[in-house]
Structures are given as structure tokens and as C-alpha cells.
Amino acid sequence: MIILLPLIASNLYKECERFANNYNTNNDVIENDVVKHDVISALYLLMLGYNANYYYRWSIIDNICIALLYILTFLISIFSAYLSFTCDWKGMFNDITIRLLFAFSAFMLGPFYLVWFFLINYLGKMC
Questions:
Q1: Which stretches of the chain score pLDDT less than 50?
Q2: 3-class SS at 111?
Q3: What SS3 class is residue 30?
Q4: How far apart are the first and last CA of the chain?
Q5: Which of 68, 91, 96, 109 supports an S-S bond with 113, CB 3.0-4.6 Å?
Q6: Count of other CB atoms within 10 angstroms of residue 73
Q7: What pTM, to 2 d.p., does this model score?
């Protein structure tokens, strides 16, 4: 068993090194020369006109823009949940648990719920 310790340590070191090389500082996964970003970062790169499958050198301004996009998506989700909670569908849903369930689903769906709210609730005069 003691004879195998250097071999185990060497394999462990190689695995840790391979794992460290597969990640860069922006927590983007690099696999087979293709970088996989999170959704907000990929959308940001696509808005700038870059291909999100390749490596991109992030600057401070880019990180600030990504943070602002995260804050914007959070605010949209909060606004969607608020609209869902305040709407009682002309008295059909007065139970607080159902309204909270709809508010949670609106928070998770965010912009999709805003489109739904506009088409069904606002134009259909349901709220």
C-alpha cells in the first residue's frame, strides 16, 4: 500500500491540474477548445457581436455590464412577481397561497410572464 502512495499522489496531482486548466478566472468551462459561458454572459457576448463559443478576454467594464444585466433580470423578475401577486383575476383567486404560487412562478419566468400579463391580463382586462 505504501508503495502505491506516490502513484496515487501523482495521479491526483494530474487530475487537479487538468481540472484547473479546464476553468478560467470567469468560471467559464473550457472543453475541447470551446468555452461554455453562463446564459447572461453568452447573451452579453452575442449582443456585442462575438461568438460565445470562443474565448473572450473580459475587462472590468464587461464585468460591470454583466453585473448590471444580472441586476436587471432580478428586477424584472421582482416586477413580474409583484404584478402576479396584485392581480386577483376579477375575484377568482382571493386565496393567498394560490396568489403566492402564481407570484413564485412569475418570478421564475420573469419576462415571459410580462408578455403573458400584457396579452391576457392587460388587454383582456382580467386584472
A1: 1, 4-5, 7, 9, 12, 23, 25
A2: helix
A3: strand
A4: 72
A5: 109
A6: 15
A7: 0.64
- Residue 26 class from Cβ within 10 Å (0-12 exposed, 13-18 middle, 19+ buried)? middle
Among candidate residues 114, 124, 117, the one with its CA nearest the CA of residue 87: 117
Q: What is the pLDDT of residues 18-29, one digit of tens each?
A: 555 554 545 555
What is the helix, strand, coil percentage profile of the chain, to 5? Answer: 65, 5, 30
Q: Is 91 left (phi over 0), alpha (psi -120 to 50) or beta?
A: left
Q: What digits encode the pLDDT tens for the residues 70-81?
A: 999 999 999 999
Buried b (16+ CB within 10 A) or exposed e, 88-125: eeeeeeeeeeebeebbeebbebbeebbebbeeebeeee
As a residue count, the chain comes to 127
- What pLDDT does 107 receive? 93
The conformational region for residue 32 under phi > 0 = left, psi -120 to 50 = alpha, else beta, is left
Where do the structural domains in the chain lie, given as residue ranges?
A: 1-58, 74-127
The pLDDT assigned to 43 comes to 82
